[in-house]
Amino acid sequence: MSRNAAPTEPSTVSRRRVLQSAGAAGLAALAGCNTGSDGGGADSGTGDLDPVRERVEVDVDEIQTGGTVRFGLGAGIDSFDPSYSTSAPAGNAHGLVYESIITQDAAGTVYPWLARTWERMEVQDIDRSAYEPYMKSAETDENGTLVADEQIIIRDPDGGQVLTVEEAPDAVADGTYGMRYRAELHEGVTFHNGEEMTAEHVARSYEVVENSSISAQTFDSFLYAEAVDDYTVDIYGQVPDAEADNQLPTTVYPMEHIEEYPDTGADPRNDRTPIGTGPFTFESYETGERAQFSSFDDYWLDDLGLDALEWWDGADGFPTSPVVDEVVVSIVTDNATRAAALNNGEIDLTYGLASDTYGEYRSAEDFRLSVTDAGAYNFLQYPVTVSPWDDERVRRGVNQLLPRAAIAENIYNGYRNPAYVPLPEMAADEGSADYDALVEELRPQTEQDTEAATSLLREAVDDLGVETPIEATIETNTSSDRVREAELVAQVLSNTEFFEIGVETFEFTTLVQRILGPEYYQQGKIVLIGLSGTFNPGSFYDAVNSIDNFGQCCNFQRVDTPELDEIATEARYSVEAVEDPAFRGQRYDEIWRGLIEQAPNSYTVFGTNVSSLSTEYVGHNTYTFASEILPYGLHAPTDEQVAYLDRR
Length: 648
Known about the structure:
The chain is an alpha+beta fold and 648 residues long.
């Protein structure tokens, strides 16, 4: 893959803490390239690798239309608006209603979607210091962070100034920007409320993201968007960015939403109907129980046909939209209850059941499993500002006590793999110079080694004068596998002389609200949760480690690793990184080594997404990320993916 960008000079890197992008993470979520002028798919992921195991293919002549797919969701929907959600489970509802100008297949390849073409037009050799003339003075909050009423794009802490969305147009008008992409939109795309999508909708959709739950994940790269004409929009990035191709686009909203919906976003609990361009319209929601969606009669791809997708070369007769009439999402947080609903025919599909049930579904005549290697991991995040967890020796000691192999085999029945490094293999193409060598190098520091851990912990507690056992609580969600993992970790730690660890569980959405609280990091709790990242390696660093992402997914404990932030800047925002994959991989390898040394987080197991489903639901394959298991399975032309109901 080749992208052009500007080099980051040493002086620029040293200013990373002076001129900061407002955001950090690339659309990571909590889990319960150049496209060329022809607008074709650009490889942003893992090349020809298909992470779907035993992919099921459908004969288009055998597809049956109609019926209601019943999906069992193991967590509540924190918001029906993707700009106000940090939950991977909720993404399964979002993907039915909302779309973006691009889409990605299961291996991460980027394809234009609502856009007919998506093309990088130019890259300029600038860094964020170029925005200083456009900045304005800002106030600071109680933590010394610069704040403003408008969405901040770039901060200059030393100068007490910020660049906000109000100043960004002036910078662009003067030619100050890092990248410019152009999207040529399909004509005739309509929203569920009848509005026709135009370039103005795309440009103004970024207003919805301002100061939202995912603002940090958007404004780490995005600068400004403007309509060139009715169906052409230019989208600008702050600086040259190796991840811009799939990070700059956002969800596209109708004007009704942009202009009339409050800061809480589109959510029926706030009397605001979710409205998008997707293949399903929102029908109803019974809080905490179920949501219902019906097929959108005026779906744009039905009207335009697959030939409107310039990259399409699939089978004749492949459907232009999902072939079912309705989707019902039932919220059943208890794994056993959800499994019983599947067994009794009350739902057709679910994921994330207790792993000890997988063998039964694999061998059952009326059920099957769909397994995909996932871009995800489980991780422990320590209260790094609270003694004694502020000493890296304590954290490293715990890291070497963790029974990763036993967790993978005994808790997840071999459906997950030990996480000896902080990066899933799904994102390793540009995230490591040699992934296998990295694992071999770091495994001695992360594999369970009680003797080495005891030595580190003894040194730390003696130097600190800490009384043992150190008492702490691991907080996690009520997923049975996650609870068992937390209990095993607590048991292993408590079996040493150094710790007395308890476990407390919360329903997923309750846990998320709790750990995202601004004072949570001071409470001395340990969090065990899952991260569903992106195909970009930076998402697995930024989300859980960058201070810019504190209070959003997924930095709950005020983790701050400034030296590694500087390397991450080079690994993403430099010409070497975007033009030389080896350079980018080498810089990321330095980051992974540094994270194991500092150990603000411990990564336990890498995820697989495992769907359990009735054989009446034919053709389903599971997506790489848990946020899109339902919509991808229903219909994804990028992989010629479609599923249908056969209830005969």
